[in-house]
Design brief:
4 strands; four-stranded antiparallel β-sheet
Length: 122
């Protein structure tokens, strides 16, 4: 038919350019979303390891150790803790601060840390 026309080449190129920009934006969102999920998964595990150690130290007999102690609950995760007396209190009213630091490496994010502190009385 005489009045029917198809799309011209510039219209097709503009449509392809708009689609390309949209697809690149979606891909960028997906990759940053994946990174966020990986980081928060590491934070969640590290927080769990720190809570576990704080509870373990709270349930042990009252001991004040000024030296830091370290263990590795899993590969790439380091957990350090210290129990320090707070103030000039004496038995049976001693008070101690428990500090647990969990450090881990998470892919491209480098080293991350979670620090939990708690108090314990005698």
């Amino acid at each position: 038919m005489a009045g029917d026309r198809g799309m011209t080449l510039p219209e097709v190129l503009i449509a392809i350019a708009i689609l390309t920009v949209g697809l690149l934006a979606v891909m960028s969102m997906l990759s940053s979303g994946f990174s966020d999920v990986v980081v928060s998964g590491g934070q969640s595990k590290a927080t769990s390891y720190a809570r576990q150690k704080v509870e373990e130290l709270r349930n042990q007999p009252f001991v004040v150790t000024l030296a830091q102690q370290t263990d590795t609950p899993e590969t790439g995760v380091t957990r350090t803790w210290q129990i320090a007396q707070v103030g000039a209190t004496v038995t049976p009213n001693r008070l101690a601060r428990i500090t647990v630091v969990v450090t881990w490496t998470g892919g491209s994010t480098g080293g991350q840390q979670v620090i939990l502190e708690g108090m314990r009385s005698e």
